[in-house]
Design goal:
single chain, mainly alpha, 7 helices, 55% helix, 0% strand
């Protein structure tokens, strides 16, 4: 299907495992799949669903997909990950406190000054994402009767845990790519200061 936005669900999941920042095209899905049946229903009572949707405010989300080195501001690529427009955009909020940023550095000046607290907050965020992914892996292991260390190879598209696990693994990869370079730089700087 040339020019189509349609992809088989299993293909999306395979792509999500290798590229953590892929998202569904919500605009396409809403306008092509949801609005037509709603139009047929609400046209009976004289409501224009398409006009209502077109007048609604739309929000564009921009996700951070990689961390930056605090010392030189350079982006760190994930191995084998293709560059996208999003990867060139700077973060608009601090990774630690979500304060608005005006510089290239991914954390604010206040969080830079409180390095130990910032490291703890970032490590907590990463640990929480890892724990959530491990919990979902354990649910799948339990269902499939697998031992603790065995790799989960379940691909049952009828199971809601499968989609949750796949989404969480992609989110974990994104969180790692975003947080680990910043944590590493903060830890090196703290170690340099503690040598004094």
């Amino acid at each position: 299907m040339s020019g189509s936005c349609l992809v088989v669900p299993f293909d999306v999941l395979l792509i999500c495992k290798s590229i953590s920042h892929i998202e569904l095209d919500a605009e396409y899905y809403i306008s092509k799949n949801l609005i037509p049946p709603l139009e047929r229903i609400f046209n009976l009572v004289g409501a224009n669903v398409r006009m209502w949707y077109d007048e609604m405010p739309k929000f564009q989300r921009i996700r951070r997909i990689e961390g930056r080195d605090l010392r030189d501001g350079s982006a760190r690529d994930s191995v084998g990950m293709k560059k996208t427009l999003e990867s060139y955009m700077k973060s608009s909020s601090c990774l630690v406190c979500n304060e608005r940023l005006d510089s290239e550095v991914p954390i604010c000046d206040g969080c830079l000054q409180r390095r130990e607290t910032s490291i703890l907050a970032l490590r907590t965020r990463l640990t929480k994402a890892e724990r959530k992914a491990a919990d979902l892996q354990n649910v799948c292991r339990s269902c499939a009767g697998l031992a603790f260390a065995e790799d989960v190879r379940c691909d049952s598209m009828d199971c809601p845990v499968f989609y949750s696990r796949t989404r969480q693994m992609a989110e974990l990869g994104s969180t790692r790519a975003m947080v680990q370079p910043v944590m590493k730089t903060l830890e090196v700087t703290v170690e340099d200061w503690s040598a004094w």
